[in-house]
Design a protein that fits this description.
Helix content is 49%, strand content 5%. The protein has 22 helices and 8 strands. The strands form 3 sheets. It has a 4-stranded antiparallel β-sheet. A hairpin with a 2-residue loop joins strand 5 and strand 6. The longest helix has 41 residues. It is globular and about 80 Å long. The chain starts with 13 loop residues before the first helix and ends in a 20-residue tail after the last helix.
């Protein structure tokens, strides 16, 4: 007989369950006032040895650091620049001496000079192409901003003349494109509270742009031209006669696209990545340890998807996003305003963020939109949802099993009150009363900790790993006119020192793949019914893998870097980097 039971079915072991809960509540506690991520619910300290990293994970981290170190040493030897040697040995202590404007390259291709043993990302060859700029909205590092629109409002006054001036749209119209679901907007309004910062007395800039994209009416299926940029406005509203930039504006257009990429990178790191994956999952980790006994079936299912999350989040708040840390150095906003954006992300309704609902809200389900992120995520969501349903159905046979589960109800109550999970529960009521909702919520947790994090983490070295394609900050204000040159573009880009730091960070964060979705420990689950369901889940993932690989053959044929970030074989079980 299995010892995994709901508490109402395990009265003979009530004392053991109480001891398990007491131990979890002593070890795992909430803290809200870490300086680096103030006003965010996180675990207090680093529970030990429960959150101790495995040897395999540690070796992967060390191997990645060694690769970065070898690349840096080769770079130093090739450049023979004494100030870089000083930086190598004394790191950030003397960084203020080393990252001035004299470190800015005279040509764009100088940003390739740092790649010695590291491979230059493929995007370096064609990131300035408009087709690739459009593709990054649907198969890039931050593929969750684009939304379908039927028309533009007065705050983004793109006229028919502007629309028809773009190659490929000469005989099209905004009204027709909107009616046919071919009009899409990337609006960065969610980062509007970011304030411009500075590094070593050098000012940094970030805008809150809007970018309009459209699918050509006679699209031929070529992925390079599936979604094309039409216009960019570098602010939320037109002001002071500032121009709307189009592909006809030469270097000024490249600058406008760079401004979008700066905004996209901060949106990605603060909202899509840190807020909506790492920190959204942490309260579930803490409350699972505190309110579900070791023998609870939900805890059994969830723990593999929480491995390493508290450790990596603890490290991030202590270093990565601390004052004076890498994020503060490289990214455009002040850390105080960055923290505000993170807190705003966590204040969103959990139910509104559930993947299928979010996709529907953004109106991106139309097949006209070639959207690799959506297509892959939908398949893995469906497979994960079926696995979760099959597993939970073994233990929860009716809604009464939900309401009578005292540990589950305590888990939900604490997530809402102590974990600050907003809009959680049936009808966002803060309670769970149905098996159907529990299945959806658990699917969302597992999907976020595995698939969604994979999609937004392992993309980094391939996109923002080449700094000109996605800079962490701009170093000049948005242009006020369309007469610009490549020299002006170089002025807005980071120095080589800052660019090299960006390469190191993105390669570190994207360089460690540990564990694999669906590959649980062999003895974790008991019973033929659950193990049969797990076999079915693995077969579904194998089918998804085959489908993605088949599509990627076509992408390679079109000369495009394949979208491989949601290959199930490359998706870790948990957020562990």
């Amino acid at each position: 007989m299995s010892d995994v039971k709901l508490p109402q079915n395990d009265q003979e072991n009530a004392s053991q369950r109480e001891a398990s809960l007491a131990a979890g509540q002593k070890k795992y506690q909430y803290k809200y006032n870490y300086h680096a991520l103030y006003d965010v619910p996180m675990a207090k300290g680093l529970p030990w040895p429960e959150e101790k990293p495995t040897l395999k994970w540690t070796l992967k981290v060390v191997a990645t650091l060694v690769r970065l170190l070898v690349n840096y040493v080769l770079y130093l030897l090739s450049s023979l620049a004494i100030y870089k040697l000083i930086k190598f040995f004394f790191a950030q202590r003397f960084n203020f001496l080393l990252s001035g404007k004299d470190d800015r390259p005279q040509k764009l291709n100088k940003y390739r000079s740092y790649f010695r043993s590291l491979k230059v990302p493929m995007i370096a060859d064609n990131y300035q192409e408009d087709g690739l700029f459009g593709r990054m909205r649907v198969a890039g590092q931050n593929p969750v901003v684009i939304q379908q629109i039927s028309a533009l409002d007065a705050d983004f006054p793109v006229t028919e003349a502007i629309f028809q001036s773009v190659k490929g749209f000469e005989h099209d119209s905004l009204e027709k494109a909107g009616a046919e679901h071919r009009l899409y907007l990337a609006d960065y309004v969610d980062i509007r509270d970011i304030e411009n910062g500075e590094t070593h007395n050098i000012k940094k800039y970030i805008c809150v742009p809007k970018a309009l994209f459209a699918i050509p009416a006679q699209h031929d299926g070529n992925l390079k031209t599936a979604l094309l940029p039409i216009a960019i406005q570098c602010a939320q509203t037109p002001a002071n006669g500032d121009p709307i930039f189009t592909p006809n504006d030469g270097a000024a257009w490249d600058i406008a696209k760079t401004i979008v990429q700066v905004a996209d990178f901060s949106h990605h790191e603060l909202i899509t990545h840190l807020g909506a994956t790492h920190l959204r999952i942490e309260p579930f980790v803490v409350s699972t340890h505190r309110q579900l006994a070791d023998s609870h079936p939900l805890k059994k299912l969830l723990l593999p998807h929480f491995e390493g999350t508290i450790l990596i989040n603890w490290g991030a708040q202590a270093s990565l996003v601390a004052d004076g840390g890498p994020f503060d150095e490289m990214f455009a906003g002040t850390m105080a305003s960055n923290r505000k954006i993170v807190a705003q992300t966590l204040a969103r309704s959990f139910n509104d963020e559930i993947f299928p609902r979010k996709m529907q809200q953004r109106g991106v389900g139309d097949d006209k939109l070639l959207y690799p992120y959506r297509d892959d995520a939908e398949k893995i969501w469906a497979a994960t949802a079926e696995w979760v349903s099959d597993y939970l159905s073994v233990y929860y046979t009716s809604d009464d099993d939900i309401t009578n589960d005292t540990e589950l109800q305590a888990w939900v109550s604490e997530l809402v009150s102590e974990g600050w999970v907003k809009g959680f529960g049936d009808d966002a009521s803060g309670s769970i009363t149905s098996v159907a909702y529990l299945k959806e919520a658990v699917t969302m947790v597992i999907f976020t900790a595995s698939t969604q994090h994979s999609a937004v983490n392992f993309t980094q070295k391939d996109f923002s790993g080449y700094t000109p394609s996605m800079p962490a900050a701009g170093y000049m204000p948005a242009p006020r006119h369309t007469k610009k040159t490549e020299e002006d573009l170089l002025e807005i880009l980071p120095t080589l020192s800052m660019a090299n730091d960006q390469v190191n960070l993105t390669n570190l964060l994207s360089g460690i793949e540990y564990t694999q979705l669906g590959q649980y420990d062999a003895d974790l689950f008991e019973g033929r019914e659950i193990n049969d369901a797990l076999i079915k889940f693995k077969k579904k993932l194998e089918k998804v893998e085959a489908d993605i690989r088949a599509r990627n053959i076509k992408e390679l044929r079109d000369g495009i870097t394949p979208y491989h970030y949601m290959l199930p074989s490359r998706i870790p079980q948990s957020i562990n980097i």
